[in-house]
């Protein structure tokens, strides 16, 4: 709904409800007060004046209802309504369905305010008697039921114009969430309102007339006027009741007519909270289910028809394929026999390969053991060579010390030779001294004999000393020569040890390199051994697979023979399927024609 339609509907509801109040209820109420209170003409004018003031003053409540209803209807504007969630949309629809019932509160408040106000305004001009005051207390019993029922039906009729709009018509609701005002309750309250108004008005007037509580003026005319107004109220009330029932019934009847023609495109709007409104929910659910079933049947019948045609086309090709398969099966059987022989030959080769692989694996394991032994020997040699290097270094140190000591000995020998030469010279001088002493002793004669003897002994001692000195000098010379020769030999030995140390270092490096190479060889041999193990496993698997393939090929040959027989049977079976597909396609077409009766 757009804004213009919303305002139009709000004004129609407000004016319609107020017309029911101002045209029907107010004149009946004023007439009842005047007649039942036995008012004079002047007081009757005051009653009409007070009722008019109260009526216009109480319009504040219809204004509030107008604004509330307008705000509710604005939530159904398409742009606003489409942005709301499903729960919010359902809540709006429930509020619209509940509005006729909640609207009763407005008229109750309006009249509960208006009747005391009318009495208050009227009694400002005179002091009422009990007879004049009493009708105001009876008035709610007379008017409330009729107003309540008429307001309810008119509100429901006008709200139904919103509920049948496109936005709300197909919106699903759970039956349990909708308040129910059943047909029995509607009839009961309608009849109660009619009887209450009649019995209250006429019964009160008859009671007053019989008991002489008050003297009615022109009783016959008064009763006729009351009867006319009551009749008008009853007519309007029943008309609204019938119109509300008729509107809902027409909606249901039209929908049943459309269903009878197979039209499933529309659903039934939920415009009331009675059994018809709740029945609309079930009917809509049924229509929705039929619509889904029909859609599925149409879709499946089309698929069935298409599939039947496809199967018919395929079976024709399948028949040709079966014939070709029969001839191919014979060729395949011969090929399988050749393949079986080839597989047996492959199996024999795989077994032989497996044996060779095992021998190669054993050789690799032996090579690994040898390389491990070499690696261990190289490690031991490296340890011994390092020890030799340390001992060579110790020998070099000892030879160097020996060479230093021999140099010192050679120096000492040279020094000793010099000393011996000095001793020789002294020996020579002693000889000369002893000769001179002998000469002088000879000159002295007997006085010099003792001195001559001393000189002789000294001379002998000098000769012996000289002789020993010569021998010592020869020995020292020989020792000096030997020392020089030994020092030269030790120097050569030291050079030899130095050369040996270098050789040992080179040997150690070579041994290290050899040890690293043996380690790498061990890793390579280990990888080769692992590869041979995998190769052995693979060879065993190949042998097993080829044996299985040989067995399978034999079974395959048997199966091909069976397939050849089955192909002939299938060829006949496919011909039967082809005939069945043609019949199935015709039945699918007939089903589609039957389902086309429904419009979705």
Alpha-beta content class: mainly alpha
Summed up, the domain count is 2
- What composes the largest sheet? none
Rg from Cα: 72 Å
Helix fraction?
A: over 70%
**Helix/strand order, N-terminal first:** HHHHHHHHHHHH
CATH topology of the largest domain: Helix Hairpins
Compute the average pLDDT. Answer: 77
Report on this structure.
By secondary structure, the chain is mainly α. The chain has two domains: about 5-265, no CATH class; about 305-595, Methyl-accepting chemotaxis protein (Helix Hairpins, Orthogonal Bundle), CATH 1.10.287. The protein has twelve helices and no strands. The protein has helices at about 5-35, 40-55, 60-75, 80, 85-100, 105-120, 130-165, 165-170, 185-210, 220-260, 275-445, 450-595. Helix 3 (about 60-75) packs antiparallel against helix 6, helix 6 (about 105-120) runs antiparallel to helix 7 and helix 9 runs antiparallel to helix 10. The protein is elongated. The mean pLDDT is about 75.
């Amino acid at each position: 709904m757009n804004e213009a339609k919303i305002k139009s509907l709000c004004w129609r509801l407000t004016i319609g409800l107020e017309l029911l109040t101002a045209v029907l209820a107010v004149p009946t109420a004023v007439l009842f007060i005047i007649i039942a209170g036995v008012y004079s003409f002047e007081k009757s004018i005051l009653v009409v004046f007070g009722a008019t003031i109260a009526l216009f003053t109480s319009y504040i409540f219809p204004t509030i209802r107008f604004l509330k209803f307008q705000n509710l209807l604005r939530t159904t504007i398409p742009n606003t309504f489409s942005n709301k969630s499903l729960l919010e949309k359902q809540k709006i629809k429930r509020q619209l369905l509940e509005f006729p019932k909640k609207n009763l509160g407005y008229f109750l408040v309006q009249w509960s305010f208006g009747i005391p106000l009318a009495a208050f305004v009227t009694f400002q001009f005179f002091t009422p008697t009990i007879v004049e005051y009493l009708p105001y207390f009876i008035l709610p019993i007379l008017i409330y039921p009729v107003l309540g029922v008429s307001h309810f039906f008119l509100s429901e009729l006008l709200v139904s114009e919103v509920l049948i709009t496109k936005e709300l018509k197909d919106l699903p609701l759970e039956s349990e969430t909708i308040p129910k005002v059943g047909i029995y309750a509607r009839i009961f309250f309608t009849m109660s309102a009619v009887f209450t108004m009649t019995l209250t008005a006429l019964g009160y007037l008859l009671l007053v007339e019989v008991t002489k509580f008050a003297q009615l003026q022109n009783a016959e005319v008064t009763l006729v006027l009351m009867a006319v107004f009551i009749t008008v109220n009853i007519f309007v009330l029943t008309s609204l009741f019938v119109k509300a029932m008729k509107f809902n019934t027409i909606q249901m009847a039209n929908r049943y007519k459309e269903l009878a023609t197979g039209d499933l495109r529309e659903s039934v709007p939920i415009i009331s909270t009675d059994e018809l409104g709740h029945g609309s929910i079930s009917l809509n659910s049924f229509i929705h289910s039929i619509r889904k079933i029909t859609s599925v049947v149409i879709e499946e019948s089309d698929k069935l028809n298409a599939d039947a045609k496809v199967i018919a086309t395929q079976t024709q090709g399948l028949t040709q394929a079966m014939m070709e398969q029969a001839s191919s099966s014979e060729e395949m059987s011969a090929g399988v026999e050749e393949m079986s022989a080839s597989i047996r030959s492959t199996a024999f080769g795989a077994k032989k390969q497996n044996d060779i692989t095992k021998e190669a694996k054993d050789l690799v394991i032996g090579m690994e053991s040898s390389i491990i032994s070499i690696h261990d020997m190289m490690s031991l040699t490296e340890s011994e060579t390092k020890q030799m290097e340390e001992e060579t270094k110790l020998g070099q140190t000892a030879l160097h010390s020996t060479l230093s000591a021999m140099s010192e000995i050679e120096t000492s020998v040279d020094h000793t030779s010099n000393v011996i030469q000095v001793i020789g010279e002294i020996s020579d001088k002693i000889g000369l001294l002893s000769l001179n002493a002998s000469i002088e002793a000879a000159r002295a004669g007997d006085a010099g004999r003792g001195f001559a003897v001393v000189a002789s002994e000294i001379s002998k001692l000098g000769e012996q000393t000289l002789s020993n000195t010569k021998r010592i000098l020869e020995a020292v010379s020989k020792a000096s020569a030997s020392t020089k020769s030994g020092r030269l030999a030790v120097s050569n030995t030291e050079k030899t040890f130095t050369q040996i140390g270098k050789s040992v270092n080179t040997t150690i490096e070579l041994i290290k390199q050899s040890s690293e190479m043996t380690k790498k060889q061990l890793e390579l041999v280990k990888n080769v051994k692992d590869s041979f193990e995998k190769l052995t496993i693979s060879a065993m698997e190949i042998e097993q697979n080829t044996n299985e393939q040989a067995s399978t090929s034999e079974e395959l040959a048997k199966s091909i023979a069976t397939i050849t027989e089955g192909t002939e049977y299938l060829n006949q079976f496919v011909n039967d399927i082809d005939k069945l597909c043609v019949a199935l396609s015709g039945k699918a077409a007939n089903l589609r024609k039957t389902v086309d009766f429904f419009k979705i």
